[in-house]
Amino acid sequence: ESVEDTSKILGSMFDGIEVRGFSQEMVEDLGKYAGVPVWNGLTDEWHPTQMIADFMTLKEEFGELKGRKLVYLGDGRNNMANSLLVTSAILGVNITISTPESLFPEQHIIDMAKKYAEESGAIIDITTETTTAVKDADAIYTDVWVSMGEEDKFEERVNLLKPYQINKELTNHIEGEWILLHCLPAFHDTETVYGKDIQERFGIGQMEITDEVFRCPQARQFQQAENRMHSIKAIMAVTNGNLFIPKA
Ligand code: NVA
């Protein structure tokens, strides 16, 4: 069935649809035809609902967002890197994407972020550096090395992204207070099918983050995960509810 037809059917049955799917185009088409609000719950390009929870977590931690520095390490051209880059730029958060050159974000995403940064004053840095990049970080962030639909790329990514792992050696370079964020799921041990498989094939029991750092006092990923519920409820209420929202 075409997305247009499915959209019309779902739109007739529901007051809103959150799609956690694959292609960005599909979600946009759904929004075009459904006649009800459609929320992007995750696509191969963007992860906007995660952004609300992430920046809510940063706000809970730091109060003011402007001028804080977020460093994302890992796959620099996936949905999370794209979303963190652009959302940081909108909000005036200084953002560093630390990734191998072959995984730099696409130019049109960088351009979009730069445009927002002109207004917000955010500093954008796309770099292959790791230890110098995290030096003055307020928050460090990572995501899985292989995203949805790329499951055949494990070998290539493990080899490419090993130097971008968040581990104690790296966090030792951070000066001052910092927090750790991760959108989850995380491959920090061998308690998952992928984790076990990667250990058997490549001899590493942890991927984008070591178990030690995942469990460190600076870790906020479970607070961040809880905030997914509050932020999605807020998104739905603002979109579909009859709310009185006082000015902050
Ligand atoms: N980059 C990850 C995000 C998971 C929330 C993926 O697309 O699988």
Description:
- The mean pLDDT is 96.
- The longest helix is centred in the last third of the chain and has 20 residues, at 221-240.
- The protein has a five-stranded parallel β-sheet with strand order 5-4-3-6-7.
- Helix content is 46%, strand content 12%.
- Helix 1 (3-13) packs across helix 2 (24-34).
- The protein folds into two domains: 3-43, no CATH class; 62-226, Aspartate/ornithine carbamoyltransferase (Rossmann fold, 3-Layer(aba) Sandwich), CATH 3.40.50.
- It is built from eleven helices and seven strands.
- Bound molecules: norvaline (NVA).
| Relative helix content | 40-55%
Shape: globular
Q: Within the CATH hierarchy, at the fold level, what is the topology of the largest domain? A: Rossmann fold
Mean pLDDT: 96
Beta-strand share of residues: 5-15%
Poorly predicted runs = none
How would you name the CATH homologous superfamily of the largest domain? Aspartate/ornithine carbamoyltransferase
CATH uppermost class of the largest domain: Alpha Beta
**At CATH's second level, what is the architecture of the largest domain?**
3-Layer(aba) Sandwich
List SSEs in N-to-C order: HEHEHEHEHEHEHHEHHH
Q: Quickly count the domains.
A: 2
What is the count of β-strands? 7
Give the terminus-to-terminus CA distance.
45 Å
How is the biggest beta sheet arranged?
Answer: 5 strands, parallel
Q: How many separate helices?
A: 11
Small molecules held by this entry: norvaline
Summing up helix and strand content along with how strands pair, one would put the structural category as alpha/beta
Radius of gyration: 19 Å
User: Main sheet: which strands, in order across?
Assistant: 5-4-3-6-7
